[in-house]
Amino acid sequence: MKAIVQEGYGSPDTLKLREIETPAPGDHGVLVEVHAASVNALDWHVARGVPFFIPLLEAITAPKHRVRGVDLAGRVTAVGKNVTRLKPGDDVLGSADGSFAEFTVTTEKRLVLKPAGVTFEQAATLNVAGLTALQGLRDRARVRAAQRVLVNGAGGGVGTFAVQIAKWLGAHVTAVTRAASVALVRSLGADEVIDHDAEDFTRRGERWDVIFDIGGLQPFSRCRRVMQPEGILLAIGGPAGRWLAPADRLLEALMLSALSRRPRVVPFVAKSVSEDLALLAGLVERGTITPVIERRFALRETAEAVRLLGAGRARGKIVINTR
Ligand SMILES: NC(=O)c1ccc[n+]([C@@H]2O[C@H](COP(=O)([O-])OP(=O)(O)OC[C@H]3O[C@@H](n4cnc5c(N)ncnc54)[C@H](OP(=O)(O)O)[C@@H]3O)[C@@H](O)[C@H]2O)c1
C-alpha cells in the first residue's frame, strides 16, 4: 500500500510517499481502508521534530515505519477475533497512529460509526480539532448559556470548531482572527469578530468568562485583566518555536494553575473519547456544526498540505484524500 513515511526530522520535506506492507489487524485491531485524513498542527510539529522530546520519544519506541497522520475516516475491511463492536463494511471515523496511508490498523475504541449524512472528508476533520473544542469548552470550562466566551485564533482547525461549539452551548462568542478570516468566522455564528492584526483584545476594556486561547500570543497577565474574577482561560496552543514551543505555553499555564489564583489559567489537552466523537458526528449530521475545509490534497501531496498548515494561514481544516 502507499503511505506517507517520515524520514528524519526538520521540515515537511521529510514526509515521503512510500510503498510499504499493508498492516494486519492482529487479534485486537481493526484494519481500515482510509478514505480521508486531516492534518493537525501535531503533524507539523512531528515533521519538524519540535518540541525536542518528540525525536527522543521515537528513538525509544523505534516504530518500524513512521507513518504519519492521526485523524481519519474510512471503511473497515478486516477485524481481529476479539473485536466485537465493528465489522467489515462499516464506515467509521476516528484516529490511528498513521492515517496518511491507504490502510491503517487501529483499535475499536478509537473509532465510531460514521453517520450516512456525514461525508468522509467531514468525518476526517473531527477527531483532534473537534474533540479539543468540545471537551475544552463543555467539560473543562463548563460553558453555560449566555456566558461570554472569547476564542483567540478562531480561523484555524480548532478555532472554527470552537466558535460553533461555544454557540451550540449557548454562549455569546467573541472571535479573534486574522482579517482574511473575519467573514468566515462571522458566518460560523460568532457574535463579534476582532481582527487581531488591527486590534489587541486585551486592550478593549471588555471582560470574558472564558478565554479559549489557541493563538497563545498575549501574556497570561494581560489576558487575566480582561477576565471575570470567576473566569477561566484554557491554554490550547501557541506559536511554534525552536525547542519546546508550543508546549512551553501549556507548561506556563500548568504552573499558573498550580497557584490556583483567580481568574484561573489552565492548560488543556484533549483525550480520545468515543462518545464525544459520536456526539460530534451527530452534530455534523444534524447541521448544528459544519466542518470548515480549507483545501483538499491527494496523498502524494501530504508534505505540501503539512507545509500549508505550518505557515499558519489555513482557514479551517486541511484534508488529505487517500484514494
Ligand atoms: N491542547 C490540545 O489538545 C490541542 C489540540 C489540537 C491543537 N492544539 C494546538 O492548537 C493550535 C492550533 O492547532 P490547529 O490544528 O487548529 O492549527 P491551525 O489550523 O494551523 O491553526 C493555527 C491557529 O493559530 C492562530 N493564530 C495565528 N496567529 C495568531 C494571532 N496573531 N492571534 C491569535 N491567533 C493566531 C490561528 O488563528 P487565525 O487563523 O484566526 O488567525 C489559528 O487558529 C496549535 O498550537 C496546536 O499545537 C492543541
Rg over alpha carbons: 19 Å
The proportion of residues in beta strands is 25-35%
Helix count from the secondary structure assignment: 10
Mean pLDDT equals 95
Q: Report the CATH architecture of the largest domain.
A: Alpha-Beta Complex
Overall strand count: 15
The largest sheet is: 7 strands, mixed
Ligand names: NADP nicotinamide-adenine-dinucleotide phosphate
Give the ordered list of helices and strands: EEEHHEEEEHHEHEHEEHEHEHEHE
Distance between the termini: 11 Å
Helix content: 25-40%
At the fourth level of CATH, the homologous superfamily of the largest domain is Medium-chain alcohol dehydrogenases, catalytic domain
Report the structural category: alpha/beta
Apparent shape: globular
CATH topology (level 3) name of the largest domain: Quinone Oxidoreductase, Chain A, domain 1
Overall tally of structural domains = 2
CATH top level of the largest domain is Alpha Beta
Low-confidence stretches: none
